[in-house]
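USER:
I wish I could look at a protein chain and see how it folds. I am handing you a single protein, as its sequence and its fold in token form. As I understand it, each token names a local backbone shape. I hope you can help me see how the letters and the tokens relate. The protein I mean follows directly.
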Amino acid sequence: MLHLAGIALVMGLSPSTYHRANRNTTYRYIYTSTWQILPWFTLLSTLLSLVLIRIVLVTALSYGLSRYALEMMVRVLVLELIPLSAALFVALRAGAAFNSPQLLASQSTAAPDISRLQQDLVPRTIACAFSVLSLATVSGVIVLLLAYINVYGISPWGLPDYTRTVGRVFDPAVTLGFALKTLLFGLAVAVVPTAAVIDAARRNITLSSTLQPGATRLLFVLVLIEVGGLAVKYI
């Protein structure tokens, strides 16, 4: 898994990777992993976020902690829950569409087929990273808008306090960490299932049709990235 991730990163930084065929493949993967699922994920995340915002706001008001409610909503929803849910949504929706029989057949030997990885793995990795970042960004903007409406209503007089609170949360270090975490989520979504399928093909292991290959490993990696980000941020 780590070896495949290293190959994907090195080839992703190589200018020779981005010829016409690879660009077309990347566009197709981006359409599959982002555009097709963006409306449904946005709608679902909006509904769930609205419920969580109301719960946090009512709970904070009942304990006299209303001044901390907005910052808590931004930290919990925008920084933590939305990127993780976007990565899981991309993994569930786009994982099956990304399974390439040609890629898997070419990797059944000990030496990896670099040309096939360059044609399939790099576009897949770029598409997954773009998808997770796009879904998290769009949903995060909607959640910030919902948080403002629930706390201040439709009045513009809360903008100074709101922008000050959000700006205090999104300092440069936190913003950089947010972008890095979402990119790592996208890399994991692309690489971990592919590595699991290639490993199974080399070892002649029959995969279950009811569970996406590497699902348990992918969940572990996503949780590990999330816990690592929390440790760096708060410890």
Q: What stands out?
A: Residues 78 and 127 are 21 Å apart (CA to CA). The chain has one domain: 2-11+18-234. DSSP finds nine helices and no strands in the chain.
